[in-house]
């Protein structure tokens, strides 16, 4: 143990890597510690049987001009990876129709007219509000606020954000999306709500009733700014960020789980495998608030503003996922890469197979699958507890796999017969490979109009220790966690 790093970063998810790249850019001596042998965490990859599979996240956001990732690439002078702009963003397979979810507003409005003729003008008026309020939220996030504010400086940083345009946001801070639907007389429109719930579950992890309006609007408009299939998967981005960190002379330690962090005098000591120890002056913790009590010493945990008993009770989803390889011919009649399925028998179940997303690899992207095949990821939100009852585990896993595959087969006949590799994963898998405690993924699910006020800040409460990732503001998604990583880096650099 000789080198004392300026900053040690625990976890090479998008949050940790964004922070590491930003700190490296400003000349900090940085070390990233990643427990697994893959970069990118929930947005990483693994390879099996000639295929590349995305570990969780598949839809890339923030790469449009001026977007968060676009700006990051520009500031690091990195070339963006090849990617396919999605239009339609996805096809939504509902029991009685297939909605093409177009990116372009004009096309999207025509699609709304095709499917929801009687309510089209109200839905379009609702979308006008989505775009208007979504861009107001973007303007605020450009300030990269530390939220919730913890210090006097955090509070003073909020002052410039108060202006005539941000004041217009106020009505959307104390209403849910459902409240807004009432204003447009859409709260009883089942078909449109089923559609909206699908989009909100994928982006904000919750339904119209529980989703704060401004959050839901920001997420909905993000799809229309540009959703991308990054070639090689989102792991390509993680690899580029880690490459940048190393080029600046810094270190990324793979297969180095941090088991314990304690404070000794003015330094933090990180304990890893085979009794190795590393020292750092400051820390960025990207391995989720769920995991903090397993790594921080009791003394540090007591100093933090996280109360484990309270944290454990917060609403969090798990994910059930299937990685599979399939014959290309099954999808020869569609050039759409992302497909959302609403179970024909249970259209109102938002989780556990009631609705789910299937992401197909781009046929042009040869890193993902052998010739003539496609790699795919199917994922659905799942309640966590059921997966930790050992006796029924295998049976449940098989039942859920069968249910999801059968639903895809219903919409794409011949799908099941043409699968050549099927790898299902549960919250137990997410805990094992990505160290997500109890398999909790995607941050905290909003539970009502004021739930955004319960966010954790990048400030841990421990001097010199910053948090980033999907369990801190602004929350889940590769775009959100990149923002928290960059905000943590900026505050640390002050
Ligand atoms: C099924 C699924 C689908 C999703 N789809 C999308 C999508 O399409 N688009 C999108 O933008 N987002 C999506 N998301 C959300 C997105 O993947 C996450 O919000 C984001 O990737 C989380 O990043 P993070 O920085 O918080 O860290 P994580 O990705 O959780 O990474 C944390 C890293 O820390 C490491 N680690 C943990 N403990 C330790 C330790 N003690 N020592 C060292 N390392 C440790 C882990 O191995 C991991 O690599 C999806 C998530 C899931 C689960």
Automatic annotation (TrEMBL):
Family matches, as InterPro entries: Amino_oxidase (IPR002937), CrtISO-like (IPR045892), FAD/NAD-bd_sf (IPR036188)
Q: Name one Pfam family in it.
A: Amino_oxidase
Q: What processes in GO biological process is this protein linked to?
A: carotenoid metabolic process
Q: Name one GO molecular function term.
A: oxidoreductase activity
User: Residue limits of the Amine oxidase domain?
Assistant: 15-493
| Name of the protein this chain belongs to | FAD-dependent oxidoreductase
């Amino acid at each position: 143990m000789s080198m004392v790093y300026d900053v040690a970063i625990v976890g090479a998810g998008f949050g940790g890597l964004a922070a590491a790249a930003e700190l490296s850019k400003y000349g900090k001596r940085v070390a990233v510690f990643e427990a697994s042998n893959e970069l990118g965490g929930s947005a990483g990859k693994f390879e099996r049987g000639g295929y590349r599979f995305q570990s969780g996240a598949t839809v890339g956001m923030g790469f449009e001009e001026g977007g968060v990732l676009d700006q990051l690439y520009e500031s690091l002078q990195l070339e963006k990876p090849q990617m396919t702009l999605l239009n339609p963003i996805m096809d939504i397979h509902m029991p009685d129709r297939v909605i093409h979810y177009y990116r372009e507003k004009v096309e999207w409005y025509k699609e709304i007219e095709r499917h929801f003729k009687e309510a089209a003008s109200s839905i379009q008026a609702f979308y006008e509000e989505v775009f208007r309020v979504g861009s107001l939220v973007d303007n605020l996030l450009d300030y990269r606020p530390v939220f919730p504010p913890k210090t006097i400086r955090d509070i003073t940083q909020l002052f410039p954000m108060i202006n005539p345009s941000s004041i217009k946001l106020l009505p959307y801070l104390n209403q849910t999306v459902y409240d807004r639907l009432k204003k447009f007389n859409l709260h009883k429109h089942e078909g449109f709500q089923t559609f909206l719930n699908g989009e909100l579950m994928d982006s904000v992890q919750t339904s119209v009733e529980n989703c704060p309006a401004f959050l839901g609007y920001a997420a909905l408009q993000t799809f229309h700014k540009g959703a991308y299939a990054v070639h090689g998967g989102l792991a390509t981005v993680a690899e580029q960020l880690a490459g940048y960190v190393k080029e600046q002379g810094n270190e990324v330690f793979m297969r180095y789980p941090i088991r314990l962090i304690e404070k000794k005098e003015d330094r933090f000591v990180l304990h890893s495998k085979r009794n190795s120890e590393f020292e750092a002056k400051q820390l960025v913790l990207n391995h989720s608030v769920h995991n903090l009590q397993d790594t921080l010493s009791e003394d540090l945990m007591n100093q933090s503003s996280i109360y484990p008993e309270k944290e454990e009770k917060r609403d969090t989803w798990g994910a059930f996922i299937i990685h599979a390889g399939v014959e290309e011919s099954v999808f020869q009649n569609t050039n759409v890469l992302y497909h959302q399925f609403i179970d024909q028998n249970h259209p109102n179940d938002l989780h556990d197979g009631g609705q789910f997303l299937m992401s197909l690899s781009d046929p042009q992207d040869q890193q993902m699958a052998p010739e003539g095949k496609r790699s795919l990821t199917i994922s659905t939100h799942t309640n966590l507890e059921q997966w930790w009852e050992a006796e029924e585990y295998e049976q449940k896993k098989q039942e859920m796999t069968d249910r999801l595959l059968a639903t895809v087969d219903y919409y794409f006949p011949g799908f099941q017969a043409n699968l050549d590799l099927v790898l299902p994963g549960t919250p137990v898998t997410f805990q094992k490979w990505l160290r997500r405690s109890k398999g909790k993924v995607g941050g905290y699910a909003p539970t009502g109009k004021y739930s955004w006020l319960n966010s954790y800040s990048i400030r841990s409460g421990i001097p010199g220790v910053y948090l980033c990732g999907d369990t801190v503001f602004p929350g889940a998604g590769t775009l959100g966690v990149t923002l928290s990583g960059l905000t943590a880096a900026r505050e640390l650099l002050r």
